[in-house]
Amino acid sequence: MVNWQSPEELANDGAAFDKFMHTLLGLYIWEFVTSLPFDWDFICGKRKFKWPLIFYFAGRYFLLFALIGIAIALNVTRPVNCQALYTYNQIFGNASIGLASINLSLRTMAIWSQVWSIVGLLVIVILGHWSLLLHGILLKAAWIPGQGCVITHTSNKLLAVTFIYTMCFDFLVLVLAGYKLGITSVGRKNRSKIVKLIFDDGLIYFVVALVSNIIATTFMLVNLNAVMSIIANVPAAIASTIVACRVVRRLTNYTTEGVEVFGTTQASTLAFHKSGRFSRGGMLSMSEKKPEGVHVQMDTFATAPGELSPSDLSYVQYDASGRIIKTTDVEVFDIEANSPKESKHHDLS
């Protein structure tokens, strides 16, 4: 039977931890570099920055800072303050875990149209989550000649509680989003594309985060030794951050491409404006001349048989749950920032 506390085993586990962390750093750098064009669009002004993206950028870069700190701790050859270095790694690593959950929470708040009861509940849960994530120093490290910075002690119980809390938090966010979108009452074939995007991405996020957190929690509760107790923490943080950031990017890219019109409008965010008319035929584009010389371009959209045609309205706008929220001038609802933007279509000749 393996003696996990023996110096030889600790040395072997430390070597495995070293190689594993370098592999994870390479994986995250690949993910980071391949998605840099999205970040660059906001830096150079091609896309308008909205406040929910603060948490996206913070979580994305905080995890990069933490992984760089871990790489430094594993490769340093001269005596350094190992405790300070690992405290830095812990703060930025835990912050990235909390920000990954916040990214999904903000979207759930938007789906619920910022109802105070939901916002208040999620804010309380977020505060509790961060109180655990930043609860003091959960590990100790020291410089050992010939080995470098070595982890000597970990607070496994508190770490396990933190990861279990994270799993419950993510599950709550998924349930709230799924309930509001009416997944149980709307058939999959009748859901709009944005509903599928929001729910399916959220489900994928929860499954990935759940599996990674279960593995990390198991290692912490088994408590084989100081190294093996935390060997799965970094993979859990990386998995949560990658999938959360991808959810944000996919939804942002979807809303940037423009609003689509579907036969079923339940649980979707749509804006039909003055230039939109409905017919029983296919999707067409037509124009007509005004006597004053103003060329007005009009788009004609198709509706499914049996649906109500709102051609007598200037436009109809739905919120994330499918309720009509406005029938005046043109506005497009941004589900990420939960704020409307005016959008008018004129073609002057």
- Overall average pLDDT: 75
| Number of distinct helices | 8
Biggest sheet features: 3 strands, mixed
Q: Alpha-carbon distance between the termini? A: 84 Å
The strand order across the widest sheet is 3-5-4
* Shape category: globular
Q: Give the helix/strand class.
A: alpha+beta
Tell me the total number of β-strands.
9
Give the H and E element order. Answer: HHHHHEEHHHEEEEEEE
Determine Rg (CA atoms, Å): 25 Å
- The proportion of residues forming helix, as a percent range, comes to 40-55%
Low-pLDDT sequence parts: 258-315, 329-339, 341-349
Strand content: 5-15%
Q: How would you characterize the overall build of this protein?
A:
The chain has eight helices and nine strands. It is an alpha+beta fold and 349 residues long. The strands form four sheets. Strands 3-5-4 form a three-stranded mixed beta sheet, with no helix packed on it. Helix 3 (53-75) packs antiparallel against helix 8 (233-257) and helix 4 runs parallel beside helix 8 (233-257). It is globular, with a radius of gyration of 25 Å. The relative contact order is 0.12.
